[in-house]
Amino acid sequence: MGRRRPIDRVNWRLYRRAWLLPALAFVLVLGTSFAPQRTPDSPLPPSFTNEQASELIDRAAAFSKRFPDRRPGTPGAIDAGQWLRDQLRDAGLTATTVPATTTRPTSGDSVGIANVEAVLPGRTRETVVVLAHRDNLGSEQRGGDPIGTLSLVQLAEDLAATRDRRRTFLLVSTDAATINGAGARALAERLQRRRGSIVAIVSLERPGSGGRTNWVPFLPAGDYVPPLGLTQAARDAVVAEGGDAGQPSILSQLLRLSVPTTLFGHGPLVEAGLPAVTISGGYERSDSARLSPTPTSVGDAVRSLQRALGTLDSVDTLQSAGKTYVSTSQRVYRGWALKILIASLLLPVWFAAADMLLRHRRSWNIAATVGTAARAVMAGLFGLITLWLTSSIGLLPGSADRPPMPASVDSLPVVGLMVWVVLAGAGWLLARGPDWRRARAAGRDSADLAVALLAGCVLCAVMLASSPYSVLLFVPALHLWLVLASRLVYSTPATAGTWGAGLLSPLASVLALGAASDTGIRAPIYALELVASRSVPAGVTLPAAALSGLGLLVLLASFGRVGAPALPAVRRTAQGLEARAVLTAIAGLRHLPRDAARARARQRARSRRARPIAALPGAGRGPRSGASGGPSGQPARRGPVRGRRARATPRSTRSSSRARPRTPEPGSTNTDRSSRT
Questions:
Q1: Which residues are CB-contacts of 365 (< 8 A; sequence separation ≥ 6)?
Q2: Which of 170, 70, 192, 111 is nearest to 401 (CA)?
Q3: CA distance 171 to 92
Q4: What sign results for the dihedral spanned by CA atoms 598, 601, 605, 611?
Q5: Helices and strands counted in the chain (H then E)
Q6: pLDDT in tens, 471-511
Q7: In Å, how far from its chain's centre is CA 249?
């Protein structure tokens, strides 16, 4: 027998009319878009040849053999930094070592690091920065980039031979990129003091040796994305040397904007609001599988860098599209218009859910449903807090400085995940406890659906203030879950499928993150570590955790299970094992004073009943007025006799008197207690 078709409580006419506002916002997005400008070519063609690339590969191999272990804070890292500083000085640049400190994420120990900075002055103080990381995780196969490091030396020699330089060049070899990106963060703090003179920052990572064709990743960090003109100049230079010309789709760009974090070297710089971009030959994961470098692939990467630097040195201004944007090969869409469109997508669900509550406010128990939604929100927040706690005590890896390296998911933290799942599940069951006393609905819990959807819109509005693009992960779910309150979907498979379809957007974001970081099927675990390490802003994780609790509430409400006990089999087992008494005792802790007073009263009553009648106060006295006979000789009043003497009556006597009541004669002074009723 199928489920009964539910009543359609959604005002679909109002819902359709509310879509007029998103349509107007979409027109605004199209009307404010513009075409990207093509950056001018470099006035000087790149001079790096494949023969020089072969020599660069040999020098990088010698560098790796001489300094195999360059972990931050080790003697090998210090010696490698001093050697590179001397090489840059020999090329004619003013090179210095800039020390800094960081914290190792795995142990919490303080680690000393050192960036090597070399300055090549130009005619103006406008500066173009080129950086590459120098450290590794103990071997070149784990995070090392010797070719990128030696490319700085080769670039310094080529730039020093160029006499006409318009802008000043700053070459930086950063440290600690393989643990928490502290070297790039220290550089960002130094450059922020003179950010007005910074024209562009180009990060070179694993050129020709990272496992893929050279490319320019479009990856945001914090509230910013790489500037439009700088990204276009770098992409044109890479394409001119046979690099990857593919541009991510609009959907892919929006998904990455919803999780604004990256492991590339430009991430800390872009997060600080500096114009930075990366030219890479690999994935975000620094220890991903790499190809054997060839002179052609290395030569293409270095020539791409030379073309980009030549363009940046000659161009007057770079095209800008604001802090955020989404682009194709023909059009660029402004970020502020996209944020208005995202906010307007919440309005149809808001109007429809509010209309449901207003029309049924007299027939629904709004107070109970609001309490249920509030407990679901608290359960979701409790799950996030327990995730942070398990990470802080070391059960889950994480870092407060930078997103954890994807290599951390190679060893799955089974114990930490199990502890977190148990704690989060216990919090959800505790939050569901008061709902078990509610009357179970005959069909769907439409009131809970309406309140949950309204609360979801409010949480998304809060998220708009910190990360507007993250709202896109939950807007499709709100629109699909509104269907659950209608008669459009009523069978069990269709209900479950509609609810599951709302989770496709977060799942797509996780898959995009896994593809970029090369984590594969472990991408959900890596996403949890991003949240546990607080790499994702709290303004995103807190509303998202609350929305996860509301999502579970929507699932229960769509099947009419809000008032039903969770895990009834567990409850029956607990009753069979007499655990119900323990639960009752725990629940009655707040009644201990009252229960103790009642117990003392019962004890006094039992002690009085155990005393003989003659020992009672007043025993042997004459009958009281109205007891066996009134003062006027009227018959005694039938009914229960209250007072101390009635309580002291033996049980057998009271039962017999109730069974066979006797009425004394008028004027009788019989004091037999069996005649009392």
A1: 447
A2: 111
A3: 12
A4: positive
A5: 25, 8
A6: 999 999 999 999 998 878 878 899 999 999 999 988 888 88
A7: 24
Measure the CA–CA gap between 455 and 377, rounded to whole angstroms: 9
Q: Grade residue 463 by pLDDT with cuts at 50, 70 and 90.
A: very high
Cα 536 from Cα 559, distance rounded (Å): 33
152-207 tens-digit pLDDT: 999 999 988 887 889 999 999 999 887 778 899 999 999 998 888 999 999 998 88
Contact 171, 118 (CB under 8 A): yes
pTM, rounded to two decimals = 0.77
CA distance 472 to 461: 12
- Residue 44, SS3 per DSSP: coil
Strand residues in 57-190 grouped as ranges (E): 94-103, 110-120, 127-133, 168-174
In the chain, the amino acid numbered 169 is: F
Residue 443, CB half-sphere, CA atoms under 13 Å: how many?
20
As a whole number of angstroms, the distance between CA 357 and CA 368 comes to 13
For residue 321, the cross-strand partners are none
Phi, psi dihedrals of residue 96, rounded to the nearest 5°: -140, 160
Burial of 410 (0-12, 13-18, 19+ CB in 10 A): exposed
Residue 279 makes CB contacts below 8 A (sequence gap 6+) with 202, 203, 204, 205, 207, 214, 215, 216, 234, 237, 238, 301, 304, 305, 308
By C-alpha distance, which of 293, 404, 343, 305 is closest to 25? 343
DSSP H or E run through 31: helix 20-31
Query: 635 forms bridges with which residues in the sheet?
Result: 629
Geometric angle at alpha carbon 265, from 259 and 270, rounded to 5°: 60
**CATH for the stretch 50-330:** 3.40.630.10
d(CA 589, CA 583): 10
The answer to whether the CB of 484 falls within 8 A of the CB of 449 is: yes
Contacts of 452 (CB under 8 A, 6+ apart): 373, 376, 481, 550, 553, 554, 557
Specify whether the CB–CB gap between 553 and 372 falls below 8 A: yes
Q: How far are the Cα atoms of 285, 291, 393 from residue 150, in angstroms, in the given order?
A: 21, 18, 40
| Beta bridge partners of residue 112, listed in sequence order | 101
Q: Where are the domains of the chain?
A: 12-26+338-569, 50-330, 592-613+641-662+673-677
- Cα Rg of the chain, angstroms: 38
**What tokens appear for 316 in the block?**
């007057």
SS percent in the chain: helix, strand, coil, step 5: 55, 10, 35
For residue 91, the 8-state DSSP code is: T
**Highest-confidence range of 104-118, 452-466, 534-548, by mean pLDDT?**
452-466
Q: For 537-599, give the DSSP string.
A: -HHHHHHHHHHHHHHHHHHHHHTT-SSSPSSHHHHHHHHHTTHHHHHHHHHTGGGHHHHHHHH
Cβ-based neighbour number of residue 347 at 10 Å:
17
Taking Cα atoms as reference points, which of 134, 73, 404 lies closest to residue 262? Answer: 404
